[in-house]
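Intended use. Records like the one below are meant for learning the mapping from a protein sequence to its folded structure. Do not use them to infer anything beyond what is encoded.
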Amino acid sequence: MKPVSHHARALLVLCAAATANAAEPAKKAAPPPVPTISRIEPRGVERGTEAKVMLTGANLAAITNVTFSNTNLTATVLPDAKPAGASIFVKSSGSLARGAYEFSVKSAAGESSRVRLFVDDIPQFDEAANRAAAPAIPAGFWGTLDVPGKPGQFDFFAAAGQTVVLDLATSSLGSAVKNSVLTLLDARGRVLAVNNGFDAGTEPMITFRAPATARYTARVADLLATASKDHFYRLSVGSFPVVTGVFPMSVPADSETTVELVGENIPPGSRVSVKSGQGGEVTIPIDPARFRARREVKVLVGDGRELVEIEPNDSPATATRITAPAVVNGRIGPAMSAVKEPVRAGARRAPEAQDADLFRFETKKGQRWIFETMAERLGSPVDTRIEVLHADGSPVPRVQLQAVRDSYINFRPMDANSTGVRLKNWEEMELTQFVWFNGEVGRLFRAPQGPDSDSILFSAGGKRVTYFDTTPTAHANEETCYIVEPHPPGAKLVQSGLPIFLVNHVNDDDGERKLGSDSKLHFTAPADGAYLVRVTDARGFGGSRFTYRLVAREPRPDFTVSLAGADQAINRASGKEFTLNADRADGFNGDIRVDITGVPAGFTVSTPVVIQAGHTAAKGTLNAAADAVAPAPAVWAAVKVSATAIVDGRTVTREVNNFGKPTLAEKPKVTVHLEPAAGAGRAVPGKPFEFTLTAGRRTPARLRIERNGHEDLVTFQVDNLPHGVIVDDIGLNGVLIPKGENERQIFFHAERWVPETDRLAHAIENQAGRQTSLPILVKVRRGAEQTTAR
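Structure written out for the chain above:
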């Protein structure tokens, strides 16, 4: 065989390459990019007109058409399109309803995502047009807060006596503005009104009656001084009617009821008919051609009679008669007789001019009632205050509070929500004692745990609760306060030199902190006869929008419990904490026992867990053994959690959500052990360590850790101890095990008043995933001298 020449070899290589290339499929060209729209200017147009709208985005040079969600809107693409920007010419029908309409643009590459164009029935202007000339109103002004700290500003003319509404929209349009403030100024730059939230924190709105025919200025700003191209807003200015609510606020079920529209610039006698179903809420049909509305207006559908106050009812002699239980709708209106001209809605009046609504009812001695308002929860601006009075209008006493220890607030003031306070001479106070703070009654939950620590008051939802239906308020530093003891009205008290406070049946804001600024008052009739319920606005405000719903009912004590801490990852040879939260109703304050059954093999849980009387939460721990095997989800689903309590003499059981689907994780970097010190407890196989504490004394225990990668310090707390039992002598830095150490001694201290009880507790660390120890059983027992004294 002859050798292949160099040229022949090269020819063979080329042929092979050509054959391989021919075998490969041709590469597809990349598809053209789809157009995108990031912003449009202007964002709003007037219906029945034509307007040029500029689009900002990407890949817009080749767009061919525009598609709207409503056929009454059409647009053509103008020939100035560029990749980053294009313009469209929008036409709208004069019959188009006000609102937001979506549109998209298309090119050969595809269709963009949809954006919103806002259509209104008044002329729309941007900042540049307003700077050129102040337009006549009504008008809508669009602007953007794109420079930090620089407000938007618009000028307009109003005639003397004209009632003008300035309605600002931001987040409801999808804007990045979340904390807007609206300011109105006159021609000399004097501030006439400021608003940063109309009715329960909604977007700002101002209504004013122009004092003179002149030029006025509206300023729009962000309270946090944030800014961007996405911080846009719309300010609608005019004498248009805006519906903010209706009266009455509730209607009977399965009926047709006529309700009155209330709001700004609403013509007198504006009413609509609404049909209700079985319950819940029903939407009010508002004619968009006649009225504007900032939101969908609804009324409650009651399950019984829905009464309406009969004016005048400002005095005991003219009080509206009701038969309790009952629901009655009322309104705190302006008192026309005490002023020369109508009071502007929301204006403060002198005390003698304030409206008050009185309702008369009959009851028997010992009968219990709850009076509760619904106002803020239904969107009304009224801040109700309710009182129960004798038939002649005099107060009905509720309790006498005798001061037994004086004190004062130090270090810092206390706002209306704070749960912590620094009290002088706190060492001479006991937990669960009542504290009088200038008309408010709190209760001591926990003593200071160190030199830089507060006394903690009973709380719910992160806010302190108050007692005897007193109302939480703010208190100044160095304000005098007292430890007080309750006594029945009329009881003869021995004078001690400290004051005695008489608390009547009155409430402003619900002391249980569940109803916001709405009111709730518990009343037990001291004698047969007639009584009055008086409803006022706590600030002295009033107007057509200041509506409320007063419910007079018998108490229905009850409770529900929920488990927080489901679906956690449980580490082997360790545990994780869960919380049981109780929602108590209508004065039920007894113990709630929570039992947990069906926990899979290899796992240990705190059970039973008791939510102590007057408390709203208790904690437990779910632990996995070192050799635990992950159970199937069906096994976890079979775990039962139930809560049981004695309510009004009957046993009540409520089902509680379970642990969900916990997962099994590897051994953590720190394993926690809480054990008795020598001679301080005992171990029973298969059961928790037992600690026996004597009330009024200290008992040692041992806190121990196993390190598995965490070598730094570890801090701890011991959760779910009986109320009145604490970890004592913890120092400034709390309970900790320093770096390089693995155990320390701690001391449990039970206050002298702690009753005999058994309770499961556990230790939890703070640096390695909040690992918990196994539950321990803490037993509090009273010494012979305490039992004798008791």
